[in-house]
């Protein structure tokens, strides 16, 4: 359940980030819309000025004697036009006049003409030329015009503003990715250090009482040899020795965490059978394992069953998977199955149970350290199994299949 809470926190953070992004996009778009409205108004004003310019020329051409009003227009109004404007003849072959266009002083007349004609063609793609007529029938000239520098700059600003949120999102995503990779690396190193430190300390703490218990066992065996003992007492002593040896093995396992394991070609089938035999005996003699449940073990195999493994660590993986399966089986009876499939490049081991299964929302959390559905669970078993299989054996451990109420299958892949 701790993992579920962590997932809810992640979803909440992602939702907040998404809302922030949407708000930024809406705010930027509102500014862009306002700028577009300003650009549209300026374009309309420039078109009106261009039309006024053409109309004035037309009035001058149709008037028998220019008035002072026209002189005022040409002296005071025309010089204030700040956008490029070109006047050509009716066929657009002769450039009659132009304003607000910078030409290179080193150009020849033909180069200037070619440049101006190219500008005329470009202007006509954006604005329809205005015709200047004589007596409304004869076309005297055409007025071509384009946008002023103010409008060009505003359009560039609009484009930059439209691109800004995506640039910010890209930079933010890159930063988050780098931060995630960095923190993940630091977290993995911290987890590794915690695993190693905890394991070494556990092995150290187990060492002293184990040595003492083994000494007491030897003393007890000596005393029993000098006295009459029952077969039951002898068997109990033998089982106690087995459990002490197992505790010694557990201490050795913990001591190997953090060190490079020695991999040897082993028969994985034998490792599984030994694990099954251990649990079968204890299920029938103690309530510590399985709470008195009747568990049927099945071991199936097909193909070669050997692989390069560390026997002690692999036993640990199988034991943890069996313990999890026993906890998952809530009824008084159930089954745990091992299915070994040997292929040329890998050995697959499917560990299945008939337990309660895992809900879909928790499937991605089962291997995360700290995740546990048990009130007193530490959530380290499956995480440890994954570390042993993937880090030490270069294999893969995955939740292959799980259906609520029907059971779960974990798949182990060991390279060959």
Summarize the structure.
With 416 residues, the protein is of the alpha+beta class.
Q: Your description of this structure?
A:
58% of the residues lie in helices and 18% in strands. The protein contains eight helices and eleven strands. The strands form three sheets. A five-stranded mixed beta sheet has the order 6-8-9-11-10. A four-stranded antiparallel beta sheet has the order 2-1-4-3, with helices on both faces. With 416 residues, the chain is an alpha+beta fold. The model has no long low-confidence stretch (mean pLDDT 81). The chain is rod-shaped, with a radius of gyration of 43 Å. Strand 8 and strand 9 form a beta hairpin. Helix 1 packs antiparallel against helix 4, helix 4 packs antiparallel against helix 5 and helix 6 packs across helix 7. The relative contact order is 0.07. The chain has two domains: 146 residues, no CATH class; 156 residues, Histidine kinase-like ATPase, C-terminal domain (Heat Shock Protein 90), CATH 3.30.565.10.
Here the CATH topology of the largest domain equals Heat Shock Protein 90
The end-to-end distance, rounded to whole angstroms, is: 37 Å
Radius of gyration from the CA trace? 43 Å
Number of helices: 8
Question: What is the overall shape?
Answer: rod-shaped
CATH class bucket of the largest domain = Alpha Beta
Structural class designation: alpha+beta
Poorly predicted residue ranges: none
CATH architecture of the largest domain: 2-Layer Sandwich
């Amino acid at each position: 359940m701790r993992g579920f809470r962590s997932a809810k926190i992640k979803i909440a953070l992602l939702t907040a980030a998404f809302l922030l992004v949407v708000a930024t996009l809406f705010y930027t778009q509102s500014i862009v819309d306002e700028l577009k409205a300003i650009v549209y108004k300026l374009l309309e004003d420039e078109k009106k000025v261009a039309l006024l310019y053409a109309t004035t020329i037309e009035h001058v051409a149709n008037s028998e004697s220019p008035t002072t009003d026209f002189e005022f227009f040409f002296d005071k109004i025309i010089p204030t036009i700040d956008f490029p404007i070109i006047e050509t003849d009716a066929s657009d072959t002769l450039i009659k006049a132009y304003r607000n266009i910078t030409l290179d002083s080193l150009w020849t007349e033909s180069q200037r003409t070619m440049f101006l004609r190219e500008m005329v063609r470009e202007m006509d793609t954006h604005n329809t030329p205005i015709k200047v007529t004589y007596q409304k029938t004869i076309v005297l000239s055409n007025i071509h015009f384009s946008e002023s520098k103010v409008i060009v700059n505003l359009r560039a600003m609009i484009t930059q503003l439209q691109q800004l949120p995506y640039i910010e999102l890209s930079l933010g995503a890159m930063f988050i990715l780098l931060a995630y990779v960095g923190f993940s690396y630091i977290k993995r190193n911290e987890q590794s250090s915690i695993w190693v430190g905890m394991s070494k300390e556990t092995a150290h703490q187990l060492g002293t009482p184990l040595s003492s218990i083994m000494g007491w066992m030897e003393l007890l065996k000596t005393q029993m040899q000098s006295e009459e003992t029952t077969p039951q007492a002898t068997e109990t002593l033998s089982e106690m020795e087995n459990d002490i040896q197992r505790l010694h093995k557990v201490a050795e396992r913990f001591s190997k965490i953090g060190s490079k394991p020695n991999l040897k070609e082993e028969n994985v089938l034998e490792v599984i059978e030994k694990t099954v035999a251990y649990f079968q005996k204890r299920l029938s003699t103690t309530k510590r394992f399985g709470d008195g449940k009747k568990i049927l073990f099945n071991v199936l195999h097909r193909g070669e069953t050997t692989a390069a493994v560390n026997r002690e660590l692999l036993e640990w993986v199988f034991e943890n998977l069996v313990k999890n399966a026993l906890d998952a089986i809530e009824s008084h009876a159930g089954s745990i199955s091992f299915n070994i499939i040997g292929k040329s490049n890998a050995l697959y081991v499917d560990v299945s149970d008939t337990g309660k299964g895992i809900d879909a929302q928790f499937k991605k959390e089962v291997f995360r350290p700290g995740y546990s559905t048990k009130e007193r669970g530490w959530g380290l078993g499956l995480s440890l199994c994954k570390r042993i299989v993937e880090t030490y054996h270069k294999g893969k451990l995955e939740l292959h299949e799980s259906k609520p109420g029907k059971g779960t299958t974990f798949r182990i892949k060991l390279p060959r």
